[in-house]
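W.,

You were right to be curious about this one. When I first looked at the sequence I had no strong expectations either way, so I just let the prediction run and decided to look at it fresh. Below is the sequence, 100 residues in total, followed by the output.
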Amino acid sequence: MPAYWIARSKINDPVEYKKYTDQVPGIIAKYGGKVLARGGKFQIMEGPDKFHRFVVIEFPTFEQGVACFTSKEYDDAAAFRRNGAGEVETIMLEAGEFTK
């Protein structure tokens, strides 16, 4: 069953943050991920107006998504944003059965 990595972020230092975003596509691909949305037009419908970048990545399974996020490669890349260059909230969501 597919799973979705959903992140919302606030970029504080675009130069440092780019060092992170330049590395991430290859890491995601290694774990079977496919970026469905990254950046682009958005409208906050409800909630705080803190985050201004949104990302949705699909993985074949929940486990592959979690493995990607917890990998050494991703952790090394994320160090560029975790030093204050950005603030991020991330969740992994397994696609569920839809009932009527």
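Here's what jumped out at me. The chain has a mean pLDDT of 94. And, maybe more interesting for your project: The longest strand covers residues 3-11.

Coffee later to discuss?

I.
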